[in-house]
Specification:
There is one protein chain. By secondary structure, this protein is α/β, with parallel strands linked by helices. The protein contains 9 helices and 26 strands. The chain has a 7-stranded parallel β-sheet. Strands 1-2-4-10-6 form a 5-stranded antiparallel β-sheet, with no helix packed on it. Helix 6 crosses helix 7.
């Protein structure tokens, strides 16, 4: 293990350190390829086996390769599918079918879950297919090509089973907030062309309820344009319905998207002519969406779009324009301040201002620092209560002009986090096309446990938010 990673681990708790080291210890050795997650046999519990069909299960944190064999049969009774969850929590498990000849899953039904008295609980079980994508170009030298489990579409029957291959089913248990603590049991009933299967299910409900709000802030890139293109959506009504399904999925997973208002924007208009123009801001559509997604669904952040503001990345940058007035002119500054101050006042009155942030420049290089600093000053002058986020680590030319620092994960040390928080600034961190091993990543050919560790590592470092581009 290299010294940089050893130093990185030294700041973590013993539990988190042990998991990280287990994941990546040999991945940093010269010439090693160790993230063979598809054939990792440490996971899994045997359930049953016939001539044509084997059945086993594992927790949701494992990636099951298509060709991986069944776990060993236990000497005693097999362990049922078992999850533990708090009230208000979603918790997954995987049931894996390994066919010895081609076949089909014809039906799949789970529940009800009952207590020891036979009384049904409101716990629900959603069944999805674990689908596979082919990785032909591994992310880094710790990874291998192959077919990796990743998408989780709702199961569509009949579902094909292929000889010599695993087909996992993803079970998501949801424990409503009014569920009583205790132990519940039920079964997953599968009818296949290779025989019927009954899988025992056990759910332990803890005697506490998750808070409705999530304290680790998150901002995950999600745009309606990509959604519409992927689903081939043409009609406006269809676009809005599907977008809402994505938002609901984010809410269930307790993460926040960049935007919940793609189809309910803040309406900014300018009345008058020339230098007599004035801003008119209508919040009717936005407020209706914000009531649902900020107050009810408890999204804890959103990106506030800036009309007229320039921007850019390390590739290029540009000044903005507002109603024909170039950024940097007195007319632009007046109109910009006029509409943005209305937004600041409204968000403060509705108690949403602390969830809003601007994200107008991405990953500046040193050549951009002066440009970015001037833009940040302009924002602060127009609406000082709106927080300014920047995807870069703290740099001296930018100090005092950033409210939320969001650098790549390897750029942070505990000392740097403490320094910026002591200055009254927020600290977030992000991952995207980097980093690679030995750091936590979002890549398909890396272990699933990496993203599960990220919130724990955020807690350990006292980082307040996570972002994925």
């Amino acid at each position: 293990m290299n010294r940089a990673f050893q130093s990185h681990c030294a700041t973590l708790s013993p539990f988190i350190t042990s998991v990280l080291i287990a994941l990546v210890t040999t991945s940093v050795l010269p010439g090693a390829q160790t993230n063979d997650v598809l054939n990792d046999t440490r996971s899994g519990y045997w359930l049953s086996q016939t001539k044509d069909l084997g059945v086993w299960w594992c927790e949701g944190g494992w990636k099951i390769g298509r060709e991986r064999g069944l776990p060993d049969k236990p000497r005693g009774k097999s362990k049922p599918v078992a999850v533990s969850a708090a009230r208000g929590e979603f918790e997954p498990a995987q049931v894996v079918l390994r066919a010895e000849k081609d076949g089909e899953v014809l039906s799949a039904e789970a529940g009800p879950l009952r207590n020891w008295l036979g009384r049904a609980a409101p716990i629900t079980v959603q069944i999805c297919e674990v689908a596979y994508v082919q990785v032909t170009h591994p992310t880094d030298r710790t990874c291998l090509p192959g077919w990796y489990p990743d998408p989780l579409p709702p199961v569509r029957l009949p579902l094909g089973l292929h000889a010599g291959q695993n087909q996992p089913l993803w079970l998501t248990f949801h424990v409503p907030r009014d569920t009583k603590a205790g132990d519940y049991h039920g079964e997953l009933r599968l009818k296949t062309s290779l025989g019927a299967v009954k899988v025992p299910l056990r759910v332990h409900v803890y005697d506490f309820t998750l808070p409705e709000e999530t304290h680790l802030k998150s901002a995950l890139g999600m745009g309606s344009h990509s959604i519409n293109r992927y689903h081939h959506l043409k009609q406006q009504a269809d676009k809005e319905v599907v977008f809402e399904k994505y938002l609901q999925n984010f809410a269930e997973h307790r993460i926040s998207p960049y935007s919940f208002y793609d189809y309910a924007p803040i309406d900014i208009r300018f009345a008058g002519q020339g230098t007599n123009k004035h801003a008119q801001v209508d919040f009717a559509k936005f407020d209706q969406a914000a009531d649902q997604w900020l107050d009810v669904a408890h999204f804890n952040t959103f990106v506030l779009p800036l009309r007229g503001m320039g921007g850019g990345t390390f590739h290029s940058r540009h000044l903005g324009e507002l109603e024909g007035f170039k950024e940097g002119t007195p007319e632009f500054a007046r109109l910009f301040q006029e509409y943005l101050s209305q937004i600041e006042i409204h968000l403060r009155e509705r108690h949403w201002l602390n969830k809003a942030f601007t994200y107008w420049f991405d990953e500046p290089a040193p050549k951009d620092f002066e440009f970015v600093a001037e833009g940040m000053k302009q924002l602060n002058a127009a609406a000082p209560g709106i927080r300014r986020m920047l995807t870069v680590q703290p740099e001296p030319p930018l100090l005092g002009q950033v409210d939320i620092w969001c650098g790549l994960t390897p750029k942070w040390t505990p000392e740097l986090v403490r320094e910026r928080r002591a200055a009254g600034e927020e600290v977030w961190w992000y991952i995207c096309c980097g980093p690679h091993a030995p750091y936590i990543t979002e890549f398909i050919d890396h272990p699933d446990t990496e993203l599960r560790l990220w919130p724990w590592q955020s807690w350990q470092y006292d980082v307040q938010g996570i972002l994925i581009w």
